[in-house]
Structure formats: C-alpha cells, structure tokens
Amino acid sequence: MTFLPKPKLHHPKLATNELGFNRRDYEGSISTLCAGCGHDSISAAIIHACFELNLPPHRIAKLSGIGCSSKTPTYFLGNSHGFNSVHGRMPSVLTGANLANRELIYLGVSGDGDSASIGLGQFAHAIRRGVNMTYIVENNGVYGLTKGQFSATSDKGAKNKRGLANADEAIDLVAMALQLGATYVGRSFSGDKEQLVPLIKGALTHKGAAFIDCISPCVAFNNHVGSTKSFDYVREHNAAVNFLDVMESREEITADYAPGTVEIVHQHDGSFLKLRKLANDYDATDRIAAMNFLQTHHARGEIVTGLLYVDPDSDDLHGALDTAEAPLNGMDEAALCPGASALDRLNASLR
Ligand SMILES: Cc1ncc(C[n+]2csc(CCOP(=O)(O)OP(=O)(O)O)c2C)c(N)n1
Ligand code: SF4
Ligand SMILES: [Mg+2]
After folding, report:
1. What torsion do the CA atoms of 345, 98, 121, 176 make, to the nearest 10 degrees?
2. N or C terminus of the chain: which is more exposed, having fewer CB within 10 Å?
3. What ligand is nearest to the CA atom of residue 109?
4. Is 71 in the pocket of ligand 2 (CB under 6 A)?
C-alpha cells in the first residue's frame, strides 16, 4: 500500500482541544484514494468527531477489512492502534481485541463488499453479540477497489457504468442491524458533514454495538446517471429524520427548547444526545417503528438518514459474559492460569 506521510507543520494558532491536541494530531497519512471519493469525507468526519470529543488518540483502536474503504484508517488517527485485517474479517478481529482489552475505544471501518458479501456472517454476529464498537460501513454500492462490480447493497435495477442493470435485490444493512439488536443505528451521507459528525460522536460515546451505514459515492465507478449511490441521487432522495447534536456531560443541560421538539437521550458515559425532530413524531427509541419507517420510505424511493434507533439502556458483550474488567495483558500468570485444581473444580461442576 502506498504510504505518503503528511508534513507535520501547522499554523501556530490552530485551535486545540482540552487535551492540547489540534485537528492535525488526529490525521493520518496522505490519502491515495481517487480525488472526490466519498470515503475521504468520512475520514474527515471521523477526525472532526474524535478531536471534538477530546479522545486521546492512543486510546482508540481502528480496525478494517479490505477495500478502498478499509484502506482509509491509514488516512486518519495516525497515532492510534490500527489493524488492517483480511477481507470481511474485521468484525471477528475487533471482537477478539475488545474481549482482550475493553479499555480501548473500538472503531471498525468496512465497505459494502467487505460487510454485505464476504463478511456478512461476521457483521451479523458482531452486531448480535453487542460488541462495544462503532461500526461504519462506507457504502458505495460497488466493489471500488476491484474496479466497480455491483455489491450486495446495490439496488435492484441500479445501472452500472456500462448501463447494465443490477438483477439482484439489495441487502439493507441498517434493516439488518435493527433486526440483529444493534443498540445505536444510523444512516448518513458522506457529503453531509453536519449530520455525519454528531452521528459518529454519538456512536463513539455509546455503549454497545453502534452501526452507521454511510452512503459514500465512488466517483470512479458509481457516480453516473442510473446509479442510486451517486452524489446527485442521494442529494435528491435524502429524507433526514432528525437534526443531531452531541452534548458532553460537563456542559450544563438547560431546558430552553420547546417541549415535544427535542429528545434527550442519556448515554452511559454521562453524555447526552440531543435530537431535534424534523419528521413529525419520529421516536428514535422505538426499534419496530424504526424498521417500519425504513421500509415505508424505501418503498417510496427515499433514503432515510439520521439517528434511526438508539437504546438508552444498552449493554455490551462484556456485560453479557460478565468478563473481568482488567485487560488480559495487564493480568499476572496466577490470574490468567488459575491452575489444575481450578480446572478440576470447573469440570466437576459440569458433570
Ligand atoms: C478473500 C478475498 N476475496 C476477494 C478479494 C478481492 N477484493 C478486494 S477488495 C474487494 C471488494 C471491496 O469492496 P468494498 O468492501 O465495497 O470496498 P470499496 O473498495 O468499495 O470501498 C474484493 C472483492 C480479496 N482481497 N480477498
Ligand atoms: S475506486 Fe471508488 S471507492 Fe475506490 S478510491 Fe476511487 S472513488 Fe473511492
Ligand atoms: Mg464498496
């Protein structure tokens, strides 16, 4: 993979966050993606979100599979932990890392090919197990890296660059994530930074499986007339359900907004997610309503974006398994290997 380091120089007056880091401290190397690729905008939104949340870069672990989308972690959070895994295998590698050390903030980045084709089983099980992670699919409806074949999220009837129509039904990863029990589900568009940044911030501060499907046009292979993942198509068919803002716990919450127009969602880490509803009576805490809403608008040819569902009382895989708090690499031998007598007692209890 090409690696172009960025020069470290920056303007001395560049704003810093509470940790003393500026935006450049959250960047990675120079992107080698096609100019205008939606994936680069998502990288910029991730950088923005981490900077504003004051996340220490060394506490973040970014994992990916294979594809143009999965290359992007090289282009952000250059001072964080990173693992570029095998095609479709990011979710299991992330699950293992998370179980070994729950103290890091896990960010999984994948593509529609990586998650909806070869990695569909992996995607499904990581979500249903409630792994504490932010899982972002950079969805362009094609296998960009291998030159634009239809992916499993490409809509039936959508046309490829040569004008041929896709004959297969599309997999909707948002619908699957809702059905599989994800406790934070959103969809956005790479060209809508105002919506995407708070959506990512909400996901990063959520406890449990947070999934974001981000439509991200591939300018090289899927940005033509007839595509349903092009910049023009998504702009024309985008039906946003809410306006998002993340408020951190240190800020005082004031009630200076009209009742019924705003919903405050309490996060486990003490922060709040503020939803300003644009759609009439949209309730982001009702999973079944979210599924209906999604299908109804899909049938009308609309792409629903925004925070579609959040469970304010969510838990994660560690809670379900009742695991030890300490990372495995911080335990001594006695804790990691309690010995033959402990094994005998365990075996006896199972007889
Ligand atoms: C096991 C395996 N099978 C196939 C490939 C070839 N391959 C590389 S990337 C890719 C698809 C990538 O598509 P997507 O995840 O949508 O990423 P994009 O490039 O569109 O961002 C495929 C099929 C591979 N690298 N490994
Ligand atoms: S081929 Fe498509 S997805 Fe890959 S970098 Fe170029 S525009 Fe982006
Ligand atoms: Mg793709």
Report:
1. 120
2. C
3. 1
4. no
d(C-alpha 87, C-alpha 303), whole Å: 27
143 lines ligand 2 (CB under 6 A): no
The Å distance, Cα 145 to ligand 1 centre, comes to: 6
pTM of the model: 0.89
- Beta strand 133-139 pairing with 105-111: parallel
Q: Which of 39, 42, 72, 87 has the most ligand 1 atoms within 8 A of CB, as the residue to mutate?
A: 87
User: Is the Cβ atom of 45 under 6 angstroms away from ligand 2?
Assistant: no
> What is residue 246's predicted lDDT score, i.e. its pLDDT?
74
The tokens describing 263, both together, are 């919903």
Residue with CA at minimum distance from ligand 1 atom 6? 146
Q: Which residues, at least 6 apart from 247, have a Cβ–Cβ distance to it below 8 Å?
A: 253, 271, 272, 273, 274
pLDDT band with cut points at 50, 70 and 90 for residue 57:
very high
Per-residue pLDDT reduced to its tens digit, 273-313: 444 444 656 789 999 999 999 999 888 888 888 999 999 99
Q: Determine the 3-state secondary structure of 44 from DSSP.
A: helix
DSSP state of 11: -
